[in-house]
Design brief:
The protein is an alpha/beta fold and 228 residues long. 39% of the residues lie in helices and 20% in strands. The strands form 3 sheets. The chain has a 5-stranded parallel β-sheet with strand order 2-1-3-4-5, with helices on both faces. A hairpin with a 4-residue loop joins strand 7 and strand 8.
Length: 228
């Protein structure tokens, strides 16, 4: 039974989300503010975080930054801000999805299940280890290693990189990558996909590796193995 941490300073929102998720069989723990959320992350094994952005004192973006220093647990942001720049900011910090208020509790539950499903071990026919130069990706363990060292990627970043490395030399449009990384209608824009690509590149930069080549006007493809 996956454990979901729901963080929101509005009791009504917490109650609605908790009820919707518990109906789907999840175990839910709640936090009323950012500090409480970080404390609960320390004391409980959490499989996914539903995180409100606009909270007093310690907001959701600050909580995300703190979590990402030591954990790649999936994060779904909740926010009353629907502008694309706010969505991109959340994803830049390591969010996996972004839901705007008001929202459908059932839709949120579906998104939680979708993100968790992407983390589940894949079947034997889909779990072969992918090697691309200095990069080794094991979908069955949801692990990526660069020059033998483990690299922490969010669920969405993992899906994007996997889509490219499993199709070496093939150009994938941003729309195709969105379809691969998000298997639900999420109104994801091409600019959002560029954000994920930028984060993957930044995380691999310390090893002098850039596995992704930009094909201007078309999309992206896996670059030459070992390319820097």
């Amino acid at each position: 039974m996956p454990t979901i941490l729901v963080v929101d300073d509005e009791p009504r929102i917490r109650d609605v989300v908790q009820y919707a998720l518990e109906r789907e069989g999840f175990r839910v723990i709640c936090a009323a503010d950012g500090s409480d959320a970080l404390a609960r992350m320390e004391s409980a094994a959490v499989d996914l975080v539903v995180l409100d952005i606009l909270m007093p004192e310690l907001d959701g973006l600050s909580v995300c930054r703190a979590i990402r220093k030591h954990s790649s647990v999936p994060i779904i942001f909740l926010s009353s801000r629907a502008e694309e720049i706010d969505r991109i900011m959340g994803l830049e910090l390591g969010g996996d999805d972004y839901v705007t208020k008001p929202f459908s509790p059932r839709e949120l539950a579906i998104r939680v299940k979708t993100v968790l499903r992407r983390m589940s071990p894949q079947s034997a026919g889909e779990s072969a280890v992918v090697t691309h130069g200095a990069i080794e990706m094991d979908p069955s363990k949801h692990e990526v290693r660069v020059r033998g060292e483990r690299l922490s990627l969010t669920v969405t970043e993992f899906a994007v990189l996997q889509a490219l490395l499993e199709r070496p030399g093939r150009v994938l449009s941003r729309a195709q990558l969105i379809d691969r990384a998000y298997d639900h209608d999420n109104h994801i824009t091409e600019r959002t996909m560029d954000t994920h690509i930028r984060r993957i590149r930044a995380k691999m930069r310390p090893w002098g590796v850039d596995p992704i080549e930009t094909v201007h006007g078309l999309g992206y493809k896996a670059g030459e193995p070992g390319g820097a």
